[in-house]
């Protein structure tokens, strides 16, 4: 893929549930390596938009291209392969609660058939990064909300995805941890991951000068990052 081609491209897209569109006429392109906030009030359609970009929901109208591929013409196997290049942090974490921190984060690598020694090396490295290495053997059900969030982030990035989606990733943590998590996303972005974060936290978005897609009244509008002269 060339860098000039957008990694995500929406042309006149509509998406919704049971024949009723939540968003309509959505049109934007995201460059590979960009950092984007998706903003809007609760119920504006942020999770719906992310579900479509993560390829678990199809547009009801228009063209959606991810990694340059039109998803309307992609079969189930192709979509599954594309999803392997995407990491997601869900709002409700979706961890396997009865399993350990280690096993939750190792899961995507085990699915890929990586050897256990390399898996261990990677998981430990990442746990140090999210400052959870002391909890490696803890069962997930015993963790606090903020700790679970960090496990979910570690699991989402262990595969070194090309795109990372996070739905309200600072929702269950205090502002100190929220800033720490944001720094992780910024670091990931610096090494080339395209990062897309849905949030209704205006304090968060105003603290970082990144482009923003604002959802309002069923429409999406892109506001570029401020240019420093
Ligand atoms: P946000 O993430 O911005 O809070 P959502 O994408 O969750 O917004 O919701 C957008 C709209 O879609 C809301 O009106 C919500 O009630 C509706 N919605 C969300 N999920 C479903 C669903 N599974 N079935 C029907 N309507 C839904």
* Percentage of β-strand residues: 25-35%
The class by helix and strand makeup works out as alpha/beta
Mean pLDDT: 92
Instruction: Could you tell me the CATH topology label of the largest domain.
Output: Rossmann fold
Tell how many strands the DSSP assignment holds.
10
Structural account:
The structure is a single chain. This protein has 229 residues and is of the alpha/beta class. It folds into two domains: 1-85 and 162-229, 3-Layer(aba) Sandwich (Rossmann fold); 92-160, no CATH class. The protein has seven helices and ten strands. Strands 6-7-8-3-9-10 form a six-stranded mixed sheet, with helices on both faces. Strands 2-1-4-5 form a four-stranded antiparallel sheet, covered by helices on one side. The chain is globular.
């Amino acid at each position: 893929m060339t860098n000039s081609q957008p990694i995500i491209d929406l042309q006149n897209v509509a998406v919704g549930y049971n024949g009723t569109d939540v968003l309509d006429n959505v049109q934007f392109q995201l460059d590979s390596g960009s950092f984007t906030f998706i903003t809007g009030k609760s119920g504006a359609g942020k999770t719906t938009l992310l579900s479509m970009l993560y390829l678990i929901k199809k547009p009801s109208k228009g063209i959606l291209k991810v990694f340059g591929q039109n998803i309307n013409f992609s079969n189930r196997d192709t979509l599954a392969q594309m999803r392997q290049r995407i990491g997601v942090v869900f709002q409700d974490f979706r961890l396997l609660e009865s399993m350990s921190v280690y096993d939750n984060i190792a899961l995507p690598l085990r699915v890929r058939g990586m050897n256990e020694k390399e898996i261990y090396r990677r998981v430990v490295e990442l746990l140090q990064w999210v400052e959870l290495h002391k909890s490696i053997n803890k069962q997930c059900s015993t963790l606090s909300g903020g700790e679970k969030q960090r496990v979910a982030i570690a699991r989402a990035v262990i595969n070194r995805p090309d795109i990372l989606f996070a739905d309200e990733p600072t929702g269950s943590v205090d502002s100190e941890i929220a800033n720490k998590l944001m720094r992780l996303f910024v670091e990931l972005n610096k090494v080339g991951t395209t990062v897309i974060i849905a949030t209704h936290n205006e304090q968060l978005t105003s603290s970082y000068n990144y482009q923003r897609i604002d959802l309002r009244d069923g429409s999406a509008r892109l506001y570029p990052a401020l240019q420093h002269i």
